[in-house]
Amino acid sequence: MFSRSFRLFRFLLLCLCISPVAFISCGRSEAIVVITPHPLNPDILYVVTTDYIYKTRDGGQTWENLSRGMSHSRVISMAIDPRYPATVYAGTKGDAIFKSYDGGQRWVSQRTGLDDVTFTSVVNQFVVDPAENNHLFVATTMGMFESQNGGATWQKRMDGMKEVLMVVTVAVDPTRPAFMYAGTSGGVYKSVNRGARWEKVNNGLVLPDVLKSSRALGVTAMQVDPNSPDTVYAGTLNGIYKTTDAAQSWKRIAESLPDQMISAMLLDRSAANVLYAASRQGIYKSEDGGTTWRALNKGLTSLNVRSLAQSWLDPSVWYVGTNGSGLYRSEDRGETWVPMPPVKPAG
Fold first, then answer.
1. What is the pLDDT of residues 264-290, one digit of tens each?
2. CA 51, 52, 55, 56 torsion-angle sign
3. Residue 22: inside a domain
4. Burial of residue 17 (number of CB atoms within 10 Å: 0-12, 13-18, 19+)
5. How far apart are alpha carbons 49 and 318 in whole angstroms?
6. Which domain holds residue 26?
7. Range with the poorest average pLDDT among 61-70, 94-103, 230-239
8. Tell me, what CATH number does 142's domain have?
């Protein structure tokens, strides 16, 4: 039996027509839900709006609609195979997973094991194993699933997650891949054996009187610090939390941020202790592991930020997607933002 707060959390995330990690309003077609940079070509970028998947091959000057051949279900998550980047995965809001072998020109459904006769999985996030590109995990509204054959079949990995159903986000320790953290509708769970078994690790994340229930705050984003892997950050519907002891205990940080509903959160891959957080009040950056923060909103005409991404090739290049004013690019780590051409088909 799930708690009332779980049902409210699920209602909030699913009925807004958006990804749980980007959960603000969905009334404008220009909202940028997902940003996925290409790992090898700086001119190629995939973005997802509230309507379609788009791809640019010229740094955003022109865009191509890639949604032909897919179902009507809205895409809310994407991943690129780091070894064979022509292989792209798209997770939907209600029709599981589609896979493309040619950069999004054609799509095939890959839902075996992801649904039953009652529910179809809403796919919130992908994780592709960097050591084995056919090994994937997905966080869905029906739990955590694993595939060892490139998404052809999926197996549920929820042993130990007795109190929750919805998994919103997952983070893998890059130095110890067996260590995984799942952000759910009821707090955080940890696995030390690649998802075979999970343990609830909510000490400090929720109040003691609800620690043993599923009435925890919803986690929307998680990041493991590669320079200090016992340090993990959790962005939630009610602020940011940090652990320095591999989730034995959590401490709330960033209480000075003007909006505590965190829509996106990323660690800078090239700079230790640098953390970016986004919400309906813009983008904020911490250079001391979350102790102090400053706004990075110069050039943005809308502060309602939906998505955030860092280039794989140039760590100074960042992208921001908003709800009201499209897509932006920064070449100075977010100090200034420049609007990119509208995300729509050319012509």
1. 999 999 999 999 999 999 999 999 999
2. negative
3. yes
4. middle
5. 18
6. 4-339
7. 61-70
8. 2.130.10.10
